[in-house]
Amino acid sequence: MSKDKGSASRTINTIRRKTQRKYSAEEKIRIVLEGLRGEVSVAELCRREGIAESVYYRWSKECIHRVLPHHPQIDLSVSTLAMRAG
Fold first, then answer.
1. How far is CA 13 from each of CA 40, 44, 50, 54, 67, rounded to the nearest angstrom?
2. 5 domain-assigned
3. pLDDT, tens digit (0-9, with 9 covering 90-100), for 33-76
4. Is residue 16 situated within a structural domain?
5. Is residue 53 within 8 Å of residue 43, measured between CB atoms?
6. pTM, two decimal places
7. What is the pLDDT of residue 1?
8. Count of the separate structural domains present in the chain
9. Under DSSP, is residue 80 helix (H, G, I), strand (E, B) or coil?
10. Is the pLDDT of residue 85 over 60?
11. Domain membership flag for residue 15
12. CA distance 37 to 13
């Protein structure tokens, strides 16, 4: 009986891996930029896009660490973001 449980668990994990959505770099950047615009809450954005908020924040961190060093003209200071949101 426990052998069947293990097999079922493996099958479920396999299905989850195969049905998990893969996001391209462009999609991730689009979602992060939309969140930075502040027109909708991050929670609402994540619900609409079907991702967890933790995923959004991981992607935003990646953008900051990977993209911004190559584009110093982009200003993401707190004051600039506050002006854009309000």
1. 33, 28, 19, 21, 33
2. no
3. 999 899 999 999 999 999 999 999 999 998 888 876 776 666 65
4. no
5. yes
6. 0.60
7. 44
8. 1
9. helix
10. no
11. no
12. 36
